[in-house]
Amino acid sequence: MTMDRKIVIIGGGIAGMETAACLRDLGWTPVIVEQSSALGGHVAEWNCLFPDLAPAGKLVDSLRAKVEGIEIHLDTVIAAINYLRKGYSLVLSDGTKLQSDAVVFATGFSLFRAEKKEEYGYGIYDHVISNKDLELWFNTGSDERVPDNPKAVGFVHCVGSRDIKAGNTQCSKVCCITAIKQAIEFKEKFPKAEVYCFYMDLRLFGRKYEDFYIHAQKDMGIHFIRGRVSEVSETIDGRVFVKAEDTLSGKPLRVSLDLLVLMAGIVCNRDNDRLAQAVSLPLDEDGFFRSRDNVSQLTLSDKPGVFFAGTCTGPKTIPETLAEARSAALAVNEYLKTLK
Q1: What is the C-alpha separation between 294 and 306, in angstroms, rounded?
Q2: For tag attachment on the chain, is the N or C end more exposed, with fewer CB atoms within 10 Å?
Q3: How far is CA 312 from the centre of its chain?
Q4: DSSP-H helix ranges across the chain
Q5: What is the CB neighbour count within 10 angstroms for residue 206?
Q6: What are the two backbone dihedrals, phi and then psi, of residue 179, each rounded to the nearest 5 degrees?
Q7: Beta bridge partners of 99
Q8: Omega before 51 cis (within 30°)?
């Protein structure tokens, strides 16, 4: 056994960075290939993390520090992957060729395109934005769609999730708690604003998540309305008019808002199909990579030397993603020890 074996990690988000750092600690040589111009993935675009409102930048910076000195290819995609008798040959978009003993897919996820739900008015009405847009506004304070002194704002849960018409019947897992986080952050910036969350049902499974919800409801005064939004329109003065049904009271609800935030759900990475075909990997019905099973072998594929880490196999929280990245590194470590 030699310890100079190379592992290519496709994706430089938090899963890819944690996997790479662990593999280097185990004595191997990881290489990260990231399609964007910086490491960090979606988390690098966030302001704070639930449920403690810890700065997202602090986590991303710590992971970036852990991968210093590791070979990293930014602004680069995988042009081709070929399975060899021993390992894989990868061609990068810049023409670089890499020989790898194992490949870890840490390609993450995409967000549902909110404009596909035309009834909510994203891209049509001036004051309708997505959860991603709001995170950017929290970070920069710059978005013409966010009023200077809003009196009322609404959050619509499950946009593109648990929705047969949208082609995604799965729960995005983190949208409910993200909506609560963003509602709290918004209320902290505008204490006098009325904040509404329109939800189907609240799925708060993580540690301290329920406490976070109670804090939002009791201490922050955020209104939680159980029921789907049925119609969104724009008033003559440019506000957003929302019609919904409060299924708990059995009464219709109509409210005018200064801003409507759509909680776009998690869907598979749009590049999954191309990458899967390159190495004959199966995808699940929802387009995520299919692991060996959904209980004990989430990081393993049916292809020798191919492993998964993070949300490339489905929606996950940050703690789950980091734990799975470490598990993937250990699985790679065991696999490499079997090679002669």
Answers
A1: 16
A2: C
A3: 10
A4: 14-25, 56-66, 131-140, 175-189, 209-214, 272-278, 318-338
A5: 17
A6: -60, -40
A7: 89
A8: yes
Give yes or no: residues 78 and 194 share one domain. no
Instruction: Determine the residue type at 319.
Output: P
Closest CA to 77 of 57, 94, 98, 55: 94
State how far the Cα of 89 lies from the Cα of 2, in Å rounded to an integer. Answer: 19
The whole-number pLDDT of residue 84 equals: 86
Q: Does residue 159 sit within a domain? A: yes
- Mean pLDDT per block of 10 residues along the chain (340 residues) reads 79 98 97 98 96 96 98 97 90 96 97 95 96 97 94 96 89 96 97 96 93 97 93 94 89 94 96 93 95 91 95 96 98 93
Residue-number span of the structural domain to which 239 is assigned: 114-266
Helix (H) or strand (E) holding 252: strand 251-257
Number of compact structural domains in the chain: 2
Domain identity same for 59 and 145? no
Residues in the chain: 340
Tell me the two tokens of residue 194: 């009325």
Do 159 and 250 lie in one domain? The reply is: yes
As to burial, measured by CB atoms within 10 angstroms (0-12 exposed, 13-18 middle, 19+ buried), residue 21 is buried
Q: Is 275 helix (H, G, I), strand (E, B) or coil?
A: helix
For the entire predicted model, the pTM comes to 0.94
H/E run at residue 225: strand 223-226
Q: In the numeric block, which tokens belong to residue 304?
A: 């020798």
DSSP-derived 3-state class of residue 154: strand
CB 240 within 8 A of CB 121: yes
Encoding tokens for residue 129?
Answer: 């934005």
- Here the tokens at position 55 are 């700065």
The CA radius of gyration of the chain, in Å to the nearest whole number, is 22
Q: Are residues 74 and 196 in the same domain?
A: no
Contacts of 316 (CB under 8 A, 6+ apart): 173, 174, 310, 324
pLDDT recorded at residue 108: 97
Nearest CA to 33 out of 86, 84, 89, 72 is that of 72
Q: Is residue 1 part of a domain?
A: no
- Residue 188 near residue 153 (C-beta atoms within 8 A): no
Terminal CA-CA length for the chain:
6
